[in-house]
Write a structure and sequence with these properties.
Elements lengths: L3 H4 L1 H5 L12 H18 L7 H18 L7 H17 L9 H20 L2
Length: 123
């Protein structure tokens, strides 16, 4: 029978030994982490992300996934569907974004036109 040292020889050769939590299979790690998260929420000590923290976490995750080459690449149909769902969700929330009103859109276009004409003055 092989000893733990022999079984984990490849881990030791890389300079890292897998012991304790790290030695468990991924499914078991996820189950334990999930229990911890549920307990923290029940106790009221879980971290609650505000919208800015959530945005930043999403940016970091997306950047890391793109660097690793594991990010999902949307085709045009998937992108269209995601945009549609996002628009529906925003509409159901009942809040109006400043950019959704027609008068604000007009002002935005006016500002862009003004900014564009001012940038040509410098040339």
């Amino acid at each position: 029978m092989a000893s733990n040292r022999e079984k984990n020889g490849d881990a030791r050769s890389s300079g890292q030994s897998k012991r304790g939590f790290a030695s468990m299979d991924e499914g078991k790690q996820r189950a334990i982490a999930s229990q911890g998260g549920k307990a923290a929420h029940a106790k009221g000590t879980a971290h609650q992300f505000d919208s800015e923290e959530a945005r930043e976490a999403g940016r970091k995750g997306g950047k890391a996934a793109h660097e690793k080459g594991t990010a999902h690449e949307f085709d045009s149909e998937e992108a269209r569907e995601a945009g549609r769902k996002g628009g529906e969700a925003r509409g159901k929330s009942g809040s109006r974004d400043d950019y959704s009103s027609s008068s604000t859109q007009g002002r935005t276009l006016e500002r862009r036109a003004k900014a564009g004409s001012q940038s040509h003055k410098n040339h």
